[in-house]
Amino acid sequence: MRAVRRLARHELRLFAGLALWAARRTHGTGGGGQAFGYARGQGVVMAGLAVVCVIETLTMSVLLRRWPVPHAVMLFLDVYTVALVVALHASSVVRPHVLTGDCLRVRHAAHVDLRVPLTAVASVRRELRTTHGRTDGELDVPVGSRTSVTVELTAPVTHVTLLGRRRDVRVIRFHAEEAEGLVRTLSTLARNAT
């Protein structure tokens, strides 16, 4: 039951991201934080997926036109799927990574929101990686199957997964569109925080 509640909250956050996107606002960037986007790299793929879902909606509508009840059910599910795909991309746009004076928030849509205290940052570097094996103590947050920033920590931070599982991580890899600027700013802030 807890997993169902978490999934429902996750979908609500996705659709809240869609509302923020329509209003041209961002989430969690107030209070002097510097935002670093990551969604541009997935925009074309998400648009392609939305188009495929629309084509599937039209196809199923034609195939089921003689059966009103299955037609209505499939139409609802297909339209919901298209809205969910658009909300997923919108949530990625409005929830960028945020760097403040005391922490780095590594985010990905409504799935990941990890706060890393700057005092725990041991090193940060720009590192382009396209393969990511699952390893204990490491968190990979790829966009388009790639990461561009690697952060190593002096002490582990706890990452809570979508379904509530807790993992301690010491290495975080994620993608940022302005990776050089993020690495430079984070290195300076982390040095000043210690």
Straight-line N-to-C gap: 43 Å
Average pLDDT taken over every residue = 91
Tell me the total number of β-strands: 8
- Strand fraction equals 25-35%
Instruction: Kindly state the percentage of residues in helix.
Output: 40-55%
> Which sequence of strands runs across the widest sheet?
1-2-3-4
The stretches of 5 or more residues where confidence is low (pLDDT under 50) are none
Task: Compute the number of helices.
Answer: 4
Major sheet size, sense and barrel closure: 4 strands, antiparallel
Shape descriptor: elongated
Radius of gyration over all CA atoms, rounded: 19 Å
Order of helices and strands: HEHHEEEEEEEH
Please describe the topology of this protein.
Blueprint: H1 2-22, E1 34-36, H2 43-63, H3 68-94, E2 97-99, E3 103-108, E4 112-117, E5 121-129, E6 138-141, E7 147-160, E8 166-174, H4 179-193
Parallel strand pairs: 6-8
Antiparallel strand pairs: 1-2, 2-3, 3-4, 5-7, 7-8
Helix pairs in contact: 1-3, 2-3
Summarize the structure.
By secondary structure, the chain is of the alpha+beta class. It has helices at residues 2-22, 43-63, 68-94, 179-193, and strands at 34-36, 97-99, 103-108, 112-117, 121-129, 138-141, 147-160, 166-174.
